[in-house]
Amino acid sequence: MTSSIRDKQIAALKQMLNLNSPEYKDNGSEPVWKVLIYDRRGQDILSPLIPIKELRECGVTLHLSIHSERDPIPDVAAIYFCMPDQDNLDRIAQDFQNNVYEKYYLNFISAICRQKLEDLASSALQTENVSHVHKIYDQYLNFISLEDELFILSNQNAQSVSYYALNRADAKDTDVEVMMDDTVDGLYSVFVTLGTLPIIRSARGNAAEMVAEKLDKKLRENLRDTRNSLFSSENSGIYNFQRPLLVVLDRNIDMATPLHHTWTYQALVHDVLKLNLNRVTVAQEQKKPKTFDLDPKDSFWTTHKGSPFPTVAESIQSELEHLKNSEEEVKQLKESMGLDGESDVALAMMSDNTAKLTSAVNSLPQLLEKKRLIDMHTDLATSILSVIKSRRLDLLFEFEEKVMSQASLDKQILDIINDTEAGTAEDKMRLFIIYYIYTHSITDSDTDMYSSALEKQGCDLSPLKYIKRWKMFSNITATSNQYGGGTKSVNMFEKLLSHTSSFVMEGVKNLVVKRHTFPVTRIVDELLENKQSSGTSDEFRYFDPKQLRSSDGFKSKNNFSEVIVFIVGGGNYIEYQNLLEYVRNKTVSPGIPQLRIVYGSTVVNNAPEFLEQLSLLGQELH
């Protein structure tokens, strides 16, 4: 399997930190010491990929924000990693003026335009700094890798490319154009970093189509510029199966999944706790909140992030018992050796047990690290469990699963709305919107009755106002067939809720959550299999930047080994995990490489954030 997008971005960043020479390897010599200056976007890109310890190993002694107050440091090289916007360029010119550093290595996250480059050259000339500016690079790293198969384009300025920003009533054409250009710039960086040219499919008549058209044009322009092309024939793949398929989708194709109460570990962490750039914050009563880093190197996390929560709780319990046994072994070994020095037998046994003790001592650092990680997951699971109990998330999840898979309901939705213990006002609104989207027989009088009940429970009805309009203009006749799934257990969390102190999970192994296919996964499957019967292939435009002329003709079935799914308007961990599950369950023909799916989006929203955006859109409707 080729390197992941995350690996390639890390390699590019480390090369940059080594003054754009091939990555520094420890050969006994000291690295060149330098300072790192970044803007907010640069910080977002670096934060999930390179911890401070690794920055030090790369020779970075100091890392500072470009707009912070910085004292001059003579005789030192400074690496700048920032967007080529006017504020940053003005600040760099100010640093030239103040002779802050000895050597300047300027790395722009996106390509700097000719005019701005000339202005920068003028600043260097006027301040007699031309000889101090050693290198200027366009890095094409304008995206944030969160995992091997997951990236986003924005974090701290997520509002600028959010679903709300794209769909608000007063969005001007120029605003939308800027958003589309920013999105295309990020996707372009992804493919420059991967070193491959994609074949692009996108739905017609929405923001996704605009992104696909603009990206196709940008890739074509670069290919035509043979002297400066970023895609050489050697690494861009001559044959179709070596090239990735990029599927660009609009958030409007599925508005239920982003609001769905979830059941998998990672999606629950994102929904009920504060997860941002792989860092999660857990509030504690009368104590300072705890912050944890969810590292892809943490094997427990990588194994269980897509597992149902009860399975995770059971695994934590067995890991804790395993750790306890390991600690007991070390303790017994010390006792048997009589390390208090009073036992005569101890001397006779010393030679036999020394090897065992040495082995135990050597494994101690790994044991301590494992204990730290399991303690962290225990804290996270305990916090999630208390939210499941207080908001009855088990009940909400079960009901939504039945609604989305068109199964018969054992409860009336009005009963859940009126149940004061079943979720917050926000939870009830999420539940009802999903019910409203998937129920085709719902009348206006029914909706008014439900709205009145929701209002009595303190719900803000603005999101529903927007969804009503969305449903009116959307073609969602196929919704009933989009979601295969449900659960075989009626109260899958019941056993868990009765054993909160330790994660004892009786009967959990018998629980089978049926396989689900969310709309995004279904579309990807139909495009991969080129299923003509579904009509998806005809509804989706086809772009190949390597073809001389743009053509919508989709001539043959391609055996893609890599698919990049990109959602304009915000993605979520539920869809991401569903795509990974699809890959795990896909059978591969002999001689064809294992499929890899990468999920990307402009931003990654949890349900409360998405509901808030719908609320703002609803308030704008008269």
UniProtKB/TrEMBL annotation:
**Residue runs in coiled coils:** none
A GO CC annotation given for this chain: membrane
Q: Name one Pfam family in it.
A: Sec1
Q: Which InterPro entries match?
A: Sec-1-like_dom1, Sec-1-like_dom3a, Sec1-like, Sec1-like_dom2, Sec1-like_sf
Any GO BP annotation: vesicle-mediated transport
Q: Which domain of life is it from?
A: Eukaryota
Q: How does it sit in the membrane?
A: Peripheral membrane protein
Keywords recorded for this protein, A-Z: Cytoplasm, Membrane
Location of this chain's protein in the cell: Cytoplasm; Membrane
Purpose of the protein: Non-vital for development.
**PANTHER family recorded for this chain?**
VESICLE PROTEIN SORTING-ASSOCIATED
**Which family is this sequence assigned to?**
Belongs to the STXBP/unc-18/SEC1 family.
Q: State the protein's name.
A: Protein sly1 homolog
Question: Native species of this protein?
Answer: Macrosiphum euphorbiae (potato aphid)
